């Protein structure tokens, strides 16, 4: 079992959100074994139906159990029980570990995440740090890093799993949670959005492809972000108000899943290909987002695009620390051509670190830009190294 970087509380109730298959249940079983905690799995239809019909039944179950910790898996299935959970926390009768695929349904129908009485953690697919010495970049780009992938030895089985996952996501996360009323446009949206992964979102063009309207498409992207199946990167601007006027970029949470949604999972990714560059950029953005989230320190990710010829892939802002300006290149040999945007646009930032992230194994200094192999670059960002 992989060691996860997220640091769960053992002295305070919390929510643990994450897309299906990211390992929430496995992590909690390791942290709170059934011998030490009362486990309630709301994926069990009989239990879920009983609590939907009689939410107060939960209080009887809790009163009959002396264990201090209670784990409720997939709590969004019965959001009404959060009123009882809230009271139990207030009365200090139990600690709760509550899992779910997203806070979206809870925010709509429950007690606003227990009015702040529970911490909130997120869990993502495995990072290269969690995988350790067995990590393989090409495999991660082709099949992603959902934990189940590492239980499968054959590529054909990995492809089958990811195809099934894509269908399960539509069926269970979207339909069962009643997030989308009209399914066919959303199904088509997932394919179109996956094909445009890493691109600036053009709501009008996506709407035409999906045969919908831009407002609906914007709500679909919100669903991806709320269900932790995508990172939405806004356009950078020192003014938050102005920043929101520019179209964001979308990065799906897992390379394998996005390739399955885009209909590409049966094809190998060739190094130096256009898709390889896309997947590498998405991998780096997601990896940084996951690991910074696990540090529990505030941060803001964005990108800069002046025109079609000038862009900085990733801007990382953290309070009281230098701003990282990052270019992401899947080349194995970098030179001054790959950091020309950093060199020209970096001058507008008084306190920043210009970082070229690539497959080149040799660290280099190119003008005012530091070029590092991707693992070292991520470590520098996590440590906020002045380089």
Can you put this structure into words, describing what you see?
The protein has 387 residues and is of the alpha/beta class. The protein has three domains: 14-122, P-loop containing nucleotide triphosphate hydrolases (Rossmann fold, 3-Layer(aba) Sandwich); 128-231 and 239-277, no CATH class; 297-383, Trna Endonuclease, Chain: A, domain 1 (3-Layer(aba) Sandwich). The protein is built from 16 helices and 13 strands. It has helices at 24-31, 45-53, 57-63, 82-90, 104-109, 128-131, 137-143, 155-175, 183-195, 203-210, 214-226, 240-243, 255-261, 274-295, 340-345, 374-383; strands at residues 14-17, 37-41, 69-73, 95-100, 119-122, 230-233, 249-252, 300-307, 310-317, 323-328, 352-358, 364-366, 369-373. A hairpin with a 2-residue loop joins strand 8 (300-307) and strand 9. Helix 14 runs parallel beside helix 16. It is globular, with a radius of gyration of 22 Å. The two termini are 34 Å apart. The model has no long low-confidence stretch (mean pLDDT 89).
In terms of structural class, how would the helical and strand content be classed? alpha/beta
Uncertain segments are: none
Q: Indicate how many domains the architecture comprises.
A: 3
Strand line-up of the largest beta sheet: 8-9-10-11-13-12
Largest sheet: 6 strands, mixed
Number of beta-strand segments:
13
Q: Note the gap between the termini.
A: 34 Å
The count of helical stretches stands at: 16
Strand content: 15-25%
Note the overall shape. globular
């Amino acid at each position: 079992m992989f060691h996860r970087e997220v640091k769960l509380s053992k002295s305070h109730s919390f929510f643990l959100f994450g897309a299906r298959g990211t390992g929430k249940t496995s992590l909690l079983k390791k942290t709170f074994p059934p011998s030490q905690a009362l486990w309630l799995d709301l994926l069990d239809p009989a239990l879920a139906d009983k609590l939907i019909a009689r939410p107060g039944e939960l209080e009887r179950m809790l009163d009959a159990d002396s264990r201090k910790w209670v784990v409720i898996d997939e709590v969004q299935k019965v959001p009404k029980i959060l009123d009882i959970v809230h009271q139990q926390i207030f009365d200090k009768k139990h600690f709760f570990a509550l899992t779910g695929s997203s806070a979206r349904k809870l925010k709509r129908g429950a007690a606003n995440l227990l009015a702040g009485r529970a911490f909130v953690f997120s869990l993502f697919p495995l990072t290269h740090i969690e995988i350790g010495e067995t990590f393989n970049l090409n495999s991660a780009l082709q099949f992603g890093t959902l934990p189940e992938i590492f239980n499968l030895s054959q590529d054909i089985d990995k492809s089958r799993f990811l195809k099934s996952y894509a269908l399960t996501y539509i069926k269970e996360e979207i339909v069962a949670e009643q997030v989308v009323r009209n399914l066919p446009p959303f199904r088509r949206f997932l394919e179109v959005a996956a094909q445009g992964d890493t691109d600036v979102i053009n709501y009008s063009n996506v709407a035409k492809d999906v045969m919908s309207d831009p407002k609906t498409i914007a709500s679909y992207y919100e669903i991806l972000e709320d269900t932790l199946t995508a990172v939405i990167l806004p356009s950078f601007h020192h003014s938050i108000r102005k920043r929101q006027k520019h179209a964001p970029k979308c990065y799906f949470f897992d390379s394998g899943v996005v390739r399955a949604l885009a209909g590409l999972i049966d094809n190998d990714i060739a190094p130096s290909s256009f898709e390889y560059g896309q997947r590498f950029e998405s991998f780096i953005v997601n990896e940084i987002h996951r690991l910074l989230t696990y540090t529990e320190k505030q941060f803001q990710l964005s990108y800069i695009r002046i025109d079609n010829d000038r862009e900085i892939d990733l801007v990382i802002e953290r309070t009281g620390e230098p701003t990282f300006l990052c270019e992401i290149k899947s080349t194995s040999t970098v030179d001054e051509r790959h950091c020309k945007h950093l060199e020209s646009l970096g001058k507008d930032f008084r306190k920043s670190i210009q970082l070229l992230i690539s497959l080149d194994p040799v660290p280099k200094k190119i003008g005012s830009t530091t070029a590092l192999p991707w693992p070292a670059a991520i470590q520098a960002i996590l440590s906020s190294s002045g380089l």
